[in-house]
């Protein structure tokens, strides 16, 4: 069982759909069969206004400074999750909630 703020590894398909690579993603929501996730990238050059910069720690399991892409949300089947890397801090989850609320005009 995963919860909001968990960082997981997912099989992310290549554009040719022949292969895949394990990539980190952030759990936003769990349903019976799926997870709603935000993508995470270590490419710091593509930061946008509502993204969240995350420094690597032992609790989040990231190897490099990374960006949570709050505008890159996807529903994935639970079967493609390979495992849990770690968890965001409460402060990071609070920032995530604020940014998603603002980005999607939910307030």
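^ Assign residues to that structure.
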């Amino acid at each position: 069982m995963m919860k909001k703020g968990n960082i997981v590894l997912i099989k992310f398909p290549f554009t040719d759909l022949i292969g895949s690579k394990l990539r980190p993603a952030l759990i936003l929501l769990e349903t019976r069969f799926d997870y709603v996730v935000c993508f995470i990238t270590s490419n710091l050059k593509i930061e946008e206004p509502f993204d969240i910069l995350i420094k690597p720690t032992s609790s989040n399991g990231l190897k490099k400074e990374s960006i949570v892409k709050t505008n890159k949300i996807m529903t994935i089947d639970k079967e493609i999750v390979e495992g849990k890397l770690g968890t965001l801090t409460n402060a990071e989850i609070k920032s995530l909630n604020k940014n998603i609320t603002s980005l999607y005009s939910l307030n």
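The first strand starts at residue 6 and ends at 13.
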